[in-house]
Every structure is written in C-alpha cells, then in structure tokens.
Structure prediction request, 281 residues.
Amino acid sequence: MEVISTIAALRARLKEEGSIAFVPTMGNLHEGHLNLMRQAREHGRCVVASIFVNPLQFGPNEDFNRYPRNFERDCKIAESAGCDYLFHPSVDEMYPNDYNTEIMIKGISNKFEGAFRPVHFNGVATIVAKLFNATKPNYAVFGQKDYQQTLVVKQLTKDLLFDLKIIIAPTLREFDGLAMSSRNIYLSDKERDDALVLFKALNTATEAILNGERKRVTINAIMHNDLRKIPYIKIDYASSADANTLEEQDTFSPNQKIVLLIAVYLGKTRLIDNSIVTIVG
Prediction:
C-alpha cells in the first residue's frame, strides 16, 4: 500500500490503473471501514481509501479538534484490508487559501441531520465532489449507518454527472448490536451499555411495523418510548420516513420502504443509527 498526500501525486499514480473503487473515510478506522474496503475490492481492480477529517462538515461547537485520529494504526488497518493507495491530504491541500466554493444539495439535506447540523451536508457534498474529482473512481463505497448522507451523495452524483456507481454497504454492528462508529471510543462504560437502547428502539419499531403498524406518529412514539428509558439521553430525533425521499407522510402505504432514523446524545457523545423496513402489505 502506498500513502499519498497530494492530489497531483494521486492522479499520477491512478492514471494508469484500471477500474478504481474508492472508500472515503475520516480515519480512526474500525471493522466497519474494513468491510467497505473489502466490498470495494469486489468491484474495482484498484482500491483507494482516503483519510481526511473534513473541517467543512463540522459546526463551530462540534468535535473537529478532538475527533479521534490515529494515522499510523489506520495505515496498518487499511493495508490489511487490501487497500492499494491511501490518500491522506492536509487541510491546505484540499482547501488552499484561495478556495471559495461550496456545494449545497437542496431538499434531501434540509431535515434530520441537516436541521441539527446546518453546515454538515454542504461540507460533505463539497469534500465528496473534490475527492471524486481527485480519484476519478468507477465505484465509491459508503456505509448505510450514515443513511441520509448516502442519499445526499447519490443526489450529488446524479446532479453533477459523476460517472461512477455508488455502492451502499450494510451497517456493521458490535456483537450486542451497537452500530460501529469512530465516536464509540468517546463513550464511558455506562454510556456504552446504555447506547444499546438505539438498537433496541429500532428493533421495537420494526417489530410493530411487521405486525401491521403504518402510522408515522405511532412508529416514532415507539422509538421515543424506548429511548427515554435512559434518563439522561438527549434525543435530537427518532423518526420514520420514506427511504428514498425522506418524506414524512402521516400514514405509510403497503409495501412502502421506509427508514427509521435516530440521533441522540449520551453525555457529550452524539450517536446515530438507522434501519430500513418495508411496510406490511
């Protein structure tokens, strides 16, 4: 595996490569990231991953400065997953002093994460577009855990005519159901135990849907009721919506695919999770 830090060097290396599969990350790699890289290997002859903690997608009171970073460890993990090139640019490389462009995706980015983190998806769209232009991949692999982000990336790819296929890999979970996340290391032992309530809330709501529940307000209430069993939890949202458009209709239709979305704070740590389920016909 070769580590590359400049766009010019990356383009030079990839110019002669064949089919390229790309996995963008912010580092602090875990088994979920490795799964993305393994899926990339199934599609591309050359696997490229990036590690870049993108300042544009962090708000002023978020955890950009303390976001976990361990580059030496990440290199070993990426190489073990079969990554061919690891792109690790500086902030100045991606956003030089004269940089003045930002991409905004309307509609799909306005609610849920977009409502609670107003600058987030503009930053995501901007860095993803730049990374796509730097790597020129045939495939790009993203994880379902950041579900709304996957919709934003699909919209970006469609609207800006990127010639590549987006692949969404299922969420990988710990043995007890907690979604794998770089931010899990922030959790205390008690918070780590209490974090299982997210998975429980998703499962309880899914069971209700499979038993015939179609009303959005009821589905949402089921998730809220489970989450509130942790007294100190702060709920940003626990909501159900159409899986393709994020439309929040009052009653879902038979055979409609919906997504259950949760974002909460446990102490100072913000966690997100989701599940996709089809309304009973």
The chain has a mean pLDDT of 96. The chain has two domains: 2-169, 182-275. Residues 217 and 245 are 18 Å apart (CA to CA). Residues 120-135 form the longest helix (16 residues).
